Amino acid sequence: MLTRAPKGTKDVLPGESYKWQYIEKIMRDVCARFAYREIRTPTFEHTELFLRGIGDTTDVVQKEMYTFLDKKERSITLKPEGTAGVVRSFVESSMGGAAQPTKMYYLNCPVFRYENPQHGRYREHHQFGIEGFGSEKPSIDAEVISLALTVLRELGVSGLALNINSIGCKQCRPDYNKALIEYLSKNKDGLCRDCQQRMGTNPLRVLDCKQETCSAIVKNAPKMIDYLCGECSTHFDGLKARLKSADIDYVVNPMIVRGLDYYTKTVFEIISTDIGALGTVCGGGRYDELVEELGGKPTPGIGFGMGMERLLLVLESLGIDIPEPSLCDVYVCTLGENASEKGFKITADLRAAGIKAECDHTGRSMKAQMKYAGKIGAGKVIIIGENEIAKGVAAVRDMKASEEKTVAFEQLNEFIKGGE
After folding, report:
1. How far apart are CA 350 and CA 416, in angstroms?
2. Distance (Å, rounded) from C-alpha 291 to C-alpha 152?
3. What CATH superfamily classification does 17-172+228-317 receive?
4. Which residue has the higher pLDDT, 194 or 287?
5. What is the topology classification, in CATH, of domain 330-418?
6. Which residues pair with 127 in a beta bridge?
7. In a 3-state reduction of DSSP, which class is residue 164?
8. Per-residue pLDDT tens digits for 294-318
């Protein structure tokens, strides 16, 4: 067991990490363009944060959280999603006192869910997320959606479809819940056991059930958008108008409710229609009551989450090649102890000059060093032996052109940089 990772986890090996770095760079660049700044929150929080924030009737809280007691018998939970921790930080750090909106993102945020591991779903996975506070205007909803689409398009994800919905607010949702429960009660026997329980605790969650029998029943259920109050209806119309003005196509999908209790008004999902079961690549929405629920002043908010592992699988499914960076620009081959010492110094100087350089650490023969240099993609090889030490020069071989030149030691940095 010592040499096996826990079930539902996955190592990111050195031969794969460049893919993560590639998508991270695009995400950071896009966030900068939209004026979002990075936030990093703890991996674990007090359990009460998630009970109050996510909702104690959700599957996440009831079935999927990693919760334990610390040495002082305090209940601690590994975060099952990113938003609650960011809201806690927003309140604790009094960010609401600054000029609004406050716009933040998190990257490679570890998220823990105790569920059955599946293709693209892990018990520990990582998320890229956006959180925007302090604006109740639909323009920021459209901005958050636009940011997500920009990231996906710049990564080359094709066939993107935006589905939007409004799930109302505490003013209009009670009337809808009443109508929904009345409809579901007539079809209760056809619902799965979980949905029969949800009818009494959180009827909106029945719309999100993936069981075929439940999905068939809710197709004819009342739609929340038909019950929106004036404020929610105006907000939803404003979102649609701004998406249209930005040439962002969308479909109103009344079945989208998202899986966490804190959502209000806008909810959305972005789907790639080209990849089948892996389709949903991003989801989010508004949470205008969450800051107050967690102890802050009433502050509207909106955000989304995008799974990093899922996104990498999407790119792979679409055949999108992520360029692998060169591991080494220059390899320093040495023969003999004096040459090895000099070669180490030259390697250090090359690195200090911003050049990716490597040298031998295993005592390989000259032939083996040359072979290794080719394997790691070195464009040039600097060759140093006892004769070169005596003359104060090195042989520099261009691996692609198969050409070799003699260069004085003190001119190596300038020669290598000039040939990049």
Report:
1. 9
2. 29
3. Bira Bifunctional Protein; Domain 2 (3.30.930.10)
4. 287
5. Rossmann fold (3.40.50)
6. 109, 307
7. strand
8. 999 999 999 999 999 999 999 998 9
